[in-house]
Amino acid sequence: MWDIVIGAAAGLAAMWLALIAALWSVKGRFDLAALRGAARLLPDLLRLLKRLAADPALPRGVRIRLWLLLAYLITPIDLVPDFIPIIGYTDDAIIVALALRSVIRHSGPQAIKRHWPGTPDGLAAILRLAGAKNDQ
Fold it and tell me: How far is 122 from 109, CA to CA, in rounded Å?
């Protein structure tokens, strides 16, 4: 019994360390100014995610991923603790960007534009974060 618990804990610790190493190795590839700007958009981004998750026009799988993302962002438990400099918040930004890319891949950037509650500059930043072109 204890062998299984210790093995599972060791496996989780190894995966966590591998994630931290991967995030640390790519930290130089991210534009930190863009990430700081994205953090200022957090209230609008959370409203966007909630609106997208509630949109019945989006595929069910996308909506489920968005609800799971919202639950992850709300919980205090994080893959990489936020007190670690630079990479603490980077994992959240990466997960949000991947979720928004999923929305764009399945429904197009129009879904994000339709539900965006903020400014046009904020929309442009979010679309850049998600890897889409802003055709406004």
Answer: 14
